[in-house]
Specification:
Pfam families: MFS_1 (PF07690). Keywords: Cell membrane, Membrane, Transmembrane, Transmembrane helix, Transport. About 80% of the residues lie in helices and about 0% in strands. It has about 400 residues and is mainly α.
């Protein structure tokens, strides 16, 4: 028995290291290209300010829209066939769609490829669900926190690498590199990730309505989904237009691509410093306190962003945002692993991904509309109001 436990421990730890790397590369590739999507689009034609903001928001949000629609289907398939298969599906298609985005000659092509990327996305989500099923409960907070560290590290380095490449070789190169990296992730996941999954016959798969009915704290699960939606909306609201804001603050002078990459990466620096500690902290004091603290601090940090006049002011505040945002989404995932039966992990995490995707749609679109109607900085005030609403919702539910 001890030998079996040791072997299982080695297997789930090996799978964790590979999936950590996969989540890192997925986030690296994503962040390496997205801070420059508006500048890339701007290079494909002549657009006025409203058109550029709208196209940027649409290209950014369309991935999340398609993701929100199909995630429940992939979640059900994950519970039937396993989460490893879903990781392979996501990494393989992402490799192709991002590579071909670099070959686009017009905005429509970018939007279509971004839509397809969303339809087949979900590597990080399924990697999280896989590890939630393989990891002993006493390590759940630490593993969720470390997977968050992988995503954050990729998000941190991606804009820096992308900024250098875009400045040196043009906006297309980051898409080509990302496609190749995702191909490597596909191969490593196929060869080295082990999942102790027993396929469930479709006729024996309990419907989500029955599983949800059996949950002891249904309201908590719903509020966790809403929390994911609102947090994602808040974090993504400025993403499609951040390079345009940086260009405005720099008065259209200097290396906008590189500075945009650095500003986009600043939250990653903050999150990277505390993500691992946050995981341990959730195991020690509970996810509720960590989540509430993160929301309060993030809400406070967003307000002074409205008054920024220079890029260094924006960079410092986004660094502080990273310190607080490290607590939020991993805390939600930890709550879900504790309060949901393992047989439903795939579907519950897919619904959570749908919530995250809806937030990824609403945030960029609202950011584009608000920035066009008012100013880029006005987006930050609306973002703070999202977090305030989220805080009110959380105070209305009971945690374990």
């Amino acid at each position: 028995m001890a030998e079996t436990d040791l072997m299982h421990s080695r297997q789930w730890r090996q799978s964790f290291f590979i999936l950590w790397f996969g989540c890192f590369i997925t986030s690296l590739g994503y962040s390496m290209t997205m801070p420059f999507i508006s500048l890339y689009i701007d290079s494909l034609g002549k657009f006025n300010n409203w058109q550029l903001n709208t196209y940027s928001g649409l290209a950014f949000a369309i991935t999340f829209l398609s993701q929100a629609i199909v995630s429940p289907y992939w979640g059900k398939l994950a519970d039937l066939r396993g989460r490893k298969l879903m990781c392979l599906r996501a990494s393989g298609v992402m490799a192709l769609t991002i590579f071909f985005t670099g070959l686009a000659q017009n905005v429509l092509t970018i939007i279509i490829l971004r839509f397809l990327q969303g339809v087949f996305s979900g590597y990080i989500n399924n990697a999280t669900a896989l590890m939630a099923g393989e990891t002993p409960h006493q390590h759940s907070g630490q593993i969720m926190g470390n997977l968050m560290t992988a995503s954050v590290t990729g998000t941190l380095l991606g804009p820096l690498f992308g900024g250098v490449m875009a400045g040196a070789w043009g906006y297309r190169m980051p898409f080509f590199i990302t496609g190749l990296l995702m191909g490597i992730v596909f191969g490593l996941t196929f060869l080295f990730v082990k999942e102790h999954f027993v396929p469930i016959p479709a006729k024996k798969l309990k419907p989500m309505k029955e599983i949800f009915h059996r949950l002891t704290n249904k309201k908590l699960i719903v509020v966790m989904f809403l929390t994911t939606l609102l947090v994602q909306s808040s974090l993504m609201s400025i993403s499609p237009i951040i390079s345009l804001l940086v260009r405005q603050l720099m008065h259209h002078q200097g290396n906008v691509s590189l500075v945009s990459g650095i500003i986009a990466a600043m939250p990653g620096f903050g999150t990277l410093l505390v993500a691992s500690r946050v995981g341990h902290l959730m195991d020690e004091i509970g996810a509720q306190k960590v989540l509430l603290s993160g929301l309060i601090i993030s809400m406070i940090v967003f307000v002074p962003m409205y008054f920024v006049q220079t890029t260094w002011q924006l960079g410092i505040l986004r660094f502080l945002l990273g310190l607080s945002s490290a607590a939020m989404l991993p805390a939600v995932q930890t709550v879900l692993t504790v309060d949901v039966p393992q047989e439903a992990f795939g579907r519950i995490f897919s619904y959570n991904q749908s919530s995250q995707a809806v937030g990824g749609v609403l945030g960029p679109l609202l950011g584009s509309v608000i920035s066009s109607a008012f100013s880029y900085q006005a987006v930050f005030l609306f973002t703070a109001s999202f977090l305030l609403l989220n805080l009110i919702l959380l105070k209305s539910v009971r945690f374990k």
